[in-house]
């Protein structure tokens, strides 16, 4: 009974051992997706047989330019993200079209999974629960147009690393499950180099996203314009 009362008090205040939910999320997100400007190379391999490779430029908290390197037939099909707005350049019609962040780009990976997807700052967060090793956080989108409306995330207590997350609709229906594994030195910190994304309704459908390279570098804001999609 005493344990239940203590847990209820923790959930009511959103704090655990002096750590509030916002601080936990901020630390975890800086590991998962640093706020710096950097470039990275990512591959996505899916159970449907597709294999994609992308070069991604990240500009601060809300800018991304994605260039498709593989497969060869998709080279030139590039993407620009500015806040929650995203454009795709389609070479065969020589036009840039606006697309949604939750539209799939490769296998189970969406546009928002490949580009920058912030947790801290874009979502309201509450501490739902905890066990010996993890905090369980519930994230609710602050505005429309983000990649996912709700996220349930499990954060490791010993090092603030994201362990796994469920991506959900506004009603709480689970869409995808993601696991963050193989932490290694990337862009000055230990970060997940492999993410396994699984369809919540069909576990046979999954994609493995691997960060092959990540390096901090200066990229001017003027680089993130639709003219550079071509």
TrEMBL record:
Short name of one Pfam family: LolA_like
Cited SUPFAM superfamilies: Prokaryotic lipoproteins and lipoprotein localization factors
Domain Uncharacterized protein TP-0789 as annotated: residue spans: 60-230
InterPro entries tied to this protein: LolA/LolB/LppX, TP_0789-like, UCP028205
This protein's UniProt keywords: Lipoprotein, Signal
Protein name: Outer membrane lipoprotein-sorting protein
Species per Swiss-Prot/TrEMBL record: Pseudobacteriovorax antillogorgiicola
Lineage: Bacteria, Pseudomonadati, Bdellovibrionota, Oligoflexia, Oligoflexales
